[in-house]
Amino acid sequence: MAFDRSNSATYLAGQLAKGFARSLQQRAATLGFSPGQFPVLVELWQEDGLTQKQILDRLDVEQATLANTLSRMERDGLIARTPHPTDRRAQIVSLTERSRALESEAIDAASDAENALLGGFRSFERQLMLEYMRMAVENARKI
């Protein structure tokens, strides 16, 4: 029996994630950030001055992935890292003026990317999809 991709939530979720990333990439490139950096920016726009560990816990990504992302963001002038005042092992990750100024345009770009992928959905369908996605994300956190 052949694998039916159209009935596989795992397969479809992967394809959807790629679609959102591509859609955001097209819009974010002109602003100077990548889709992989967007979650870090969102966390810092919510609460600037987090440690790498705090960001790691909030995003639930691999340590090495986050370390590489932060290095690229620092290189590109999106964040600055400074020593933690009381923990010699930790660094404070802060937004730069450049990334603070990007917030509104970046959020608009993400919204445009979302609208492109969810075009044709009626309002209640969109809300249902978001609710189902939140439920699936919550379930994934328990694994």
TrEMBL record:
It holds the Pfam family MarR. Keywords: DNA-binding, Transcription, Transcription regulation. SMART domains: HTH_MARR. GO terms for molecular function: DNA binding; DNA-binding transcription factor activity. The keyword Transcription applies. It comes from the Bacteria. InterPro entries: HTH_MarR-typ, Tscrpt_reg_MarR-type_CS, WH-like_DNA-bd_sf, WH_DNA-bd_sf. Residues 6-138 form the HTH marR-type domain. The keyword Transcription applies. This is MarR family transcriptional regulator. The lineage of its organism: Bacteria, Pseudomonadati, Pseudomonadota, Alphaproteobacteria, Hyphomicrobiales.
